[in-house]
Specification:
A hairpin with a 7-residue loop joins β10 and β11. The protein has three domains: about 90 residues, Roll (Ubiquitin-like (UB roll)); about 90 residues, Translation factors (Elongation Factor Tu (Ef-tu), domain 3, Beta Barrel), CATH 2.40.30.10; about 120 residues, Nucleotide-binding domain of ferredoxin-NADP reductase (FNR) module (Rossmann fold, 3-Layer(aba) Sandwich). The two termini are about 35 Å apart. The protein has seven helices and 19 strands. The longest helix has 14 residues. With about 325 residues, it is an alpha/beta fold.
């Protein structure tokens, strides 16, 4: 039996018995429910429960403060209805999925080490790989509780291949399961695509991609799409890492080298042999790009401090319009 979820002053949708979260049911129904990380970290999908009964799947999810929990607020990505419900939140067309997400089984076709702690995972999913460059999918690693969000690094294709660049996180159950437990040919649950930080092909401006760590994956997808277009745009690619051994973006972008690509690796803790740019990658963006920065379309992915620093740099210090800034927040 499907429950009915009604948004105050807006759309209603059905929650099928096989669905896992309120957010995923809404997006699969074509509802523009606000979200970013989809795994409980960012808080973008907060809502108020007006009537009915809802269960919290991850009561301690960091996307809600203790005060918000006591006020009865919920995260759509970490809750599911137990009855018909009415909720309150503001939905907009910008969150309406361009490619409706689907939940399927994926098979691990290949795993290729890129650095000491990052690897490229290639999954094959039945049907065409339909997504927008820069989007992400949810993977359910064997033996780990819940989903993990990882961005695609390849381009949409008819072969059903989805590629991800994943970093092994010390103590991380999800990433360690993908590296150590998932054998070639094994399957895992896959759900996607999600995300709003996809390539805006219609934007006329030059493109700036800023990658930190495994945030390299969606930036590769955006750069590959922009540079492979019939009329390629200029792409300024900033690749932030700690040491030279952590860099792999240059090698992956090598097939696209040409007049439309400016690639700059930046190391925060280089050794004495490093001759390139040093410091934090957002500082290199400010020092390298010709002003004014508002003439560019910005895409970035990486650790939260980098995301926050770039937001401050672009919106506060250089007044870049928010419509020209694209990123998805992750844990």
């Amino acid at each position: 039996m499907a429950y009915r979820v009604q948004i105050e002053g807006g759309e209603g949708f059905a929650f099928p018995p096989e669905e896992d979260t309120l957010l995923r049911a809404a997006l699969r129904a074509g509802v523009g429910m606000p979200h970013e990380c989809s795994v409980g970290g960012c808080g973008a999908c907060r809502y108020d429960l007006l009537s009915g009964e809802m269960v919290r799947l991850w009561p301690e999810a960091p996307g809600l403060s203790e005060r918000e929990r006591k006020r009865g607020r919920f995260l759509a990505c970490q809750s599911r209805p137990l009855t018909d419900c009415a909720i309150k939140l503001r939905c907009t067309d910008e969150y309406r999925p361009v490619v409706p997400p689907r939940r399927r089984e994926a098979k691990l076709e290949a795993r290729r080490m890129l650095t000491a702690d990052m690897a490229e995972f290639t999954l094959r999913v039945p049907g065409a790989a339909a997504f927008l460059p820069g989007q992400y999918a949810l993977l359910y690693p064997p033996g780990a509780t819940g989903a993990r969000a990882y961005s695609m690094s390849n381009l949409p294709n008819e072969d059903g291949l989805w590629q991800f660049i994943i970093r092994r996180v010390p103590g991380g159950r999800g990433s360690n399961a993908l590296f150590d437990t998932l054998d070639l040919g094994a399957t895992l649950t896959f759900d996607g695509p999600y995300g709003h930080a996809y390539l805006r092909e219609e934007a006329p401006r030059e493109i700036v991609c800023v990658a930190g760590g495994s945030g390299l994956a969606p930036m590769l997808g955006i750069a590959r799409a922009a540079l492979g277009a019939p009329a390629p745009k200029q792409v300024h690619f900033f690749d932030g890492a700690r040491t030279a051994g952590d860099l792999c973006g240059g090698a992956l972008l090598a097939p696209l080298t040409g007049p439309h690509l400016n690639y700059l690796p930046v190391l925060s803790t280089p050794d004495a042999a490093w001759q390139g740019a040093t410091g934090f990658v957002h500082e290199a963006v400010a020092h390298t790009l010709p002003a004014p920065l508002m003439q560019y379309e910005f895409y970035f992915a990486g650790p939260p401090p980098m995301i926050e620093a770039l937001q401050t740099l672009l919106m506060v210090q250089h007044q870049v319009p928010y419509s020209q800034i694209h990123f998805d927040r992750f844990l």
